[in-house]
Amino acid sequence: MDxxxxxxxxxxxxxxxxxxxxxxxxxxxxxxxxxxxxxxxxDDQQDIAIVRKAxxxxxxxxxxxxxxxxxxxxxxxxxxxxxxxxxxxxLILLDxxxxxxxxxxxxxxxxxxxxxxxxxxxxxxxxxxxxxxxxYAAGANAVVSKVGTLEAMGQILxxxxxxxxxxxxxxxx
Length: 173
Prior knowledge:
This protein is an alpha/beta fold. The protein has a single domain (9-120, 130-166), classed as 3-Layer(aba) Sandwich (Rossmann fold), CATH 3.40.50. Helices cover 38% and strands 17% of the residues.
């Protein structure tokens, strides 16, 4: 795999990422030779590391961008819509927490926007059934429970990648 493909990037000015491997801004050209692009909306560095590691081993070359919160991710999508040179993500992975109203608001905004609603949004939860029902009601395309091991999470994420990028037709591309 081309070393330039995993173009991990973070948005927002979240100080928790300062000095970490996520604290680098790459140009917003998403592709960098990737087969598909993923926007990961998550504020937990351990979860981000697990998802990044699993996606780096996916059967496709993925460009992954990380935003710490819904408002930051919404800003990225808005900039991509405003600038014809930028490409929208092919998939959004949205980490949902019970107390995070911003994530639900982001999900609703994506699904209400005509130019964004076709982007599949897969939510990652802690297994809370009520949270999953709320996510589906807000427009999530899938709700997936996070699991404790890297290997198990890798299998889940690879299944997501296989489905959205190999099985499902992407008419919005």
